[in-house]
Amino acid sequence: MWNWFFQLASPKWFYTIARKVTPWLSVLMYSLMLAGLVLGLIFSPADYQQGNTVRIMYIHIPAAYMSMMIYVIMAVAGAIGLVWRMKMAHIVSVSCASIGAMFTALALLTGAIWGKPTWGTYWVWDARLTSELILLFLYLGFMALHSAYDDKKAADKASAVLALVGVVNIPIIHFSVEWWNTLHQGATLSKLEKPSMDTSMLWPLLIMIVAFKLYFVVTLFHKIRGEILLREKQASWVKKLVADSKQ
Amino acid sequence: MELISSEFNSDNLIEITNLTVIRSDFPVFSPVNFSLGAGQAMQIRGTNGAGKTTLLRAICGLCHSLEGEISWNDEVITPAHQNFYQSLLYIGHALGLKPKLTIEQNLSFFQQLRFELDSQLIQEAMQAFGIAELYDEYVAKLSAGQKRRVSLCRIITEPVPLWILDEPLVALDVDGQQWMLDICNQHLERGGILLITSHQPINGIHNLRELTLS
Amino acid sequence: MKNFNRIVTRELSVVFRSQSEFVYPLAFFIMVTSMFPLAVTPEPAQLAFIAPGVIWVAALLSLLLSLNAFYQSDFQDGSLEQMLLAGVSGSLIILAKAFANWIVTGLPLVLIAPIIGVLLNLELQANMIAMLALLIGTPSLCLIGAIGINLTVGLRNGGVLLTLLVLPLFIPILIFGASAVEAASIGKNYSGQLAILAAILILSLMLAPFAAAAAMKISID
């Protein structure tokens, strides 16, 4: 029962599996992304209020969705690393950070681009954008803390503690920002809200969400493999791998 | 002069099995094995950077990335091991003294964390280390050697069996070093255990074993 | 509990020996808040409008400034590890230090806030609520700050990093604290905000000492 868990903990095993799986996942990811983009950008209808600008939603919403999810994964992996002292879990946690930060930045950027035609300005202190901005700060803090430590193990543990503190705080921050927003701006700016979405818009959105998830997994595997090679450079299997690839 | 009045349990035993500390993927020193029972002493030797301090801190539970096992009286040590921390005194390079407090405030703070306040014992300890007249002096005003003496007073004010002393003779004058060795011998006679590092060879502690780190 | 008192007493006697620790953050608080009339406007109505935010942001920053002095020396001179080796649990050390931190830095801010409120043209009711909100909110800041400082205390350039780590975590307290004062100044109900501040304090008391103690042990290693 626990066997797979311990296998997962072995960097070598993870490396080989990730290397085998990645091409297949990439193919799946690219075809889904293509399908989602074609459906979303060409075949789905324009919004009756916002016109074609609404199509940026097919990037914005999945990116925003991923930015939150990755932080949770990062924190859970960090917690597993702290509790079971598992090297692989820390590697996963650390590899998540830059991808999560990238998605958060993407969500902010697309949000701003969407905001210009919708609100007439690039930035509005809208509850979601503000939450995303704070999330970006949390990601940057995590990455900065991890790189500030000289010793990798201490860095792993310290940033895992920070991720856990962050994950407890995110709902509170989210709630407080929502509350602050309704207090100051009323509900007038919640144009991003799509309570009833047409199925012709829903499908491409769902496909894009799945494609983004796959993109995350593929990039994560790439990052993890790099991190494993870097950390296990003393291990004989890594030396052999490098020697083989040079030939 | 008799300073150490308490007799320690003759069953006390610290055992180190295959202990090493990993820093940036490399072990700092090759695995260490030894055990010390009541009345036994060991000096850790090694060149600069050999990991003497790291080894002592690992035994105290201050290093986290260690491999191997440390046990005290046949129980493996975990961070919550009250029994072990009741029996241990570690004096390292950082002495733990607050410059803005007096000698007496510093010593009684540490004494009270584990024992009842015993002002007389603190007085006697300071007397023995030749700093009695500095009783009310702030630690900030002391010289390096005097600060070292203050921190070493704790081996008397906190009577515990296991002493782990990192370079205790540094900054002490010749008389101070001699006192220190005498007290270590008394401690061993009472059934104490001593783990010590020093650059200079230590002459005068009975039956001192040596362990060289590589 | 005895050890809690001893650590608090020791912290306080160290601080009262030199006094700079508790004068600096207070001076910082007063000076930063008095910059705003100069930078924005001396017009009374506008000052009263920005006052809640100004008071809270300044309180946040001066608490942040106080953290380093409170933890760094204990870390460097070996006091922290000696306390741990004496069998005192890490979370108790944090709790005691955060409490002393609050007595020395948070409490003076609470007491001086009404004067700042008068300078910023805050009316009496709002001024009292500002004091109350600071009283409930600042202990949480000390506790959350303890996590951040213990993560960075062993690093060479920990200061700026500390700000980056801790400020996002302060945001909920800032929002509800400032909002309570604002609500009071326009005659609205402010009890909800105070209740949430109290809830955050309880949560911080339960969780922050453990996180900070874990961070402390990583830094000591």
Mind explaining what this structure looks like?
The complex is a heterotrimer of chains A (about 250), B (about 210) and C (about 220). Chain A is an all-alpha fold and about 250 residues long. Chain A is about 80% helix and about 0% strand. Chain A is globular. Chain B has 2 domains: about 1-85 and about 160-170 and about 190-215, Rossmann fold; about 95-160, no CATH class. Helix content of chain B is about 30%, strand content about 25%. In chain B, helix 3 (about 105-115) packs parallel to helix 5 (about 145-155) and helix 4 (about 120-130) packs across helix 5 (about 145-155). Chain B is globular, with a radius of gyration of 17 Å. Chain C has one domain. Chains A and C meet through helix 5 and helix 6 of A and helix 6, helix 7 and helix 8 of C.
Determine the number of helices of chain C (DSSP H or I, runs of at least 4 residues). Answer: 8
Number of domains as seen in the coordinates of chain B: 2
Tell me, rounded to a whole number, the average pLDDT of chain C: 93
The topology string of helices and strands of chain B comes to EEEEHEEHEHHHEHEE
Give keywords.
heterotrimer; A: 247 residues; mainly alpha; 8 helices; globular; B: 214 residues; alpha/beta; Rossmann fold; five-stranded antiparallel beta sheet; five-stranded parallel beta sheet; 6 helices; 10 strands
In short:
The complex is a heterotrimer of chains A (247), B (214) and C (221). By secondary structure, chain A is mainly alpha-helical.
How would you summarize the topology of this molecule?
The complex is a heterotrimer of chains A (247), B (214) and C (221).
Chain A: H1 3-8, H2 11-43, H3 57-84, H4 87-119, H5 127-148, H6 152-185, H7 199-231, H8 236-246
Chain B: E1 13-23, E2 26-27, E3 32-37, E4 41-45, H1 52-59, E5 66-72, E6 75-76, H2 82-86, E7 88-91, H3 103-114, H4 119-128, H5 144-157, E8 162-166, H6 174-189, E9 193-197, E10 208-212
Chain C: H1 2-18, H2 20-39, H3 44-76, H4 79-85, H5 90-119, H6 124-152, H7 158-185, H8 191-220
Helix pairs in contact in C: 1-5, 2-3, 2-5, 3-5, 3-6, 3-7, 5-6, 5-8, 6-7, 6-8, 7-8
